[in-house]
Structure formats: structure tokens, C-alpha cells
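Dear colleague,

Thank you for sharing your sequence with our group. We've completed the structure prediction you requested, and as agreed, I am returning the results in plain text so they can be pasted directly into your records. Please verify that the sequence below matches your submission; if there's any discrepancy, let me know and we will rerun it promptly.
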Amino acid sequence: MKKLLLVVLLFINSWSFIFAQDQIIYKYSQNDYVDSILGVNNDTIIYSNFKEIYKVPLSDVEAYFITIRSKENLGKGFYMRERELYNISEKIEYQERNKLRRDTVIHRTHVIKSAIPFKLNGNYEFDLSYEKFNTKKTSFYTNISISVINDLDLWVNQSGGSFPEYLSYHNIYGNSFSVTTAYKYYFIPFKRFKPAGVYIGIAAQPSYTKVYCDYMVFYNESLQYSYRDEGKIIGVNVGGLAGIQFLISSRICLGFEFGFYGSISKFTSEKTVYFNTGHELKDIITKDNFPMSFNISLGYAFN
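Please find the predicted C-alpha cells below.
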């Protein structure tokens, strides 16, 4: 009886060794030869052995070999057959790493940024803003802006008034200071990073501006009159914001923003006449009751 059992075991072992086509290498250095690996899905290897179907979790497998099933290759001896190696541990690690990247939302709490200045001769602007992002889709935003105008020259072709056609030369210099506070709502938030997305907001902007303008008016290349206009504006702009913000590589913040305000301001103006040929200066005060703004900002996001 013992001899018969030994013969059966030897036959089963020989069957596995001689007729098995594929090989599964488990973790911890355990190997199995199987008749055929039938397929591999996201988390399971399916194989057949002795006409039975089995399943093995991929998490238990280090690698597997599949025999090239050509007539010439299968006709070779067991050790002479060519097999293709598939390393499962690297595949699982790659899949898990990519899944982590796809599913993880990188949430930054604070953003510091500055507006990218548009080139304007004679105008120098310093701009710094801070945004605190809340847990949902909202944020609080503060911006400080300081502008210095130094020797900004403008030539303007004009018509009307006391002369049918004349030129006006404006030499402008001065400074302004404003603080903007806003509440933003990201109604289309981006899934990958926060704070990022399309937003709208409400804003208030106290401001102070002091500007000196030297005017020179010419007719037929002759100086008609010149004067200095000193203006001060103290007021509050109240309005709305709309924009889009991106986080690049989870840290670099890029934003495009449009603002529209209604102005509540006090305007004072004083004129000093340098040269006048009899033309009467009218104390005409113009002010923009609906200032608008557009800026492109670049900054850094952190926790």
C-alpha cells in the first residue's frame, strides 16, 4: 500500500513537472508550476491545474511566467521552453501609486501672490495679496496695492472747446494706495488641487490717490495756456470679482481676475495757472464712477 501511494505521488509530481506549462512565483520564495495561466485582472490571477480552475490574489504574487505556446517551443524539453516573465509587484506598486495620484486631493490653505504688472511707461506698481482658503469652496482675500506715477507723458489730439483743433500735453505724476478685501466662492472647483477653479466674489476697496498734472495746450504749434492740476481722491470702491485660478504642481498659483466696482469717493481739485492768453479755465471735474480692473497674478500656495 505504501509503495502504491509513493508511485501515485511520484506520478503526480512528474505530471506537474513535465506537463505544466506556466509558473507562479509567490512572495516569500514559494513557486508553483501550473498547467495554464488563463488570465489576469486587476487583483486576481486565474489559472488551471489538473482541469480545475483556481484564483490567486495578485497581492500574494511576486511574478509569473507564461510559456510561449508555439508548436516548436512546446516540443522542447521542459527546461528548454521559452517563457515570458511578468513582474506583478512592480505592476501593483505602479497601479497603487497612480491611483493615489488620481484620488488624492492636494489641499493648500494659504496663497501669497502678486499681480504681474502690465508695461506702462512712468507707472510703477507694487501688488501683494493673501488668500485664506476655507474647508469647503470659499476663501477670504486681501490685497495691498501701491502705485507710483513718475513723469508719465501723454500727447492728446483734441477738438472742440474754444479752438477747432489743438494738441494737449499732460505730464502726470503722483501716487495711490488701496486695500482690497474680498469673499470668494469657487462655484466650479477643480478636483485635483485646492484652492483652484472658477470663482466669483464680492469686494470692498478703500483707496487714496494724489495726482499732479501739468497741462500745456497748443494751437498751430503755439502755446495757448498751461496750468497745473492737483487732484486728490479718497473713497471706497464696492463691487464684484470673477476669475479663474490654477495650482501648478500643487504649489505654483496662477490666476486671472476681472473686477467691476461702483465708486463712493470725494474728489478735490486745485488749479494753478502758469500762462494764459485769455482762455478761461473751467473747473471741470471728471471721475470714474465705475472703475474696472483686470490682472494676471502669480504666487505660491502652502499649508
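Summary note from our side: The chain has three helices and 17 strands.

Kind regards,
the structure core
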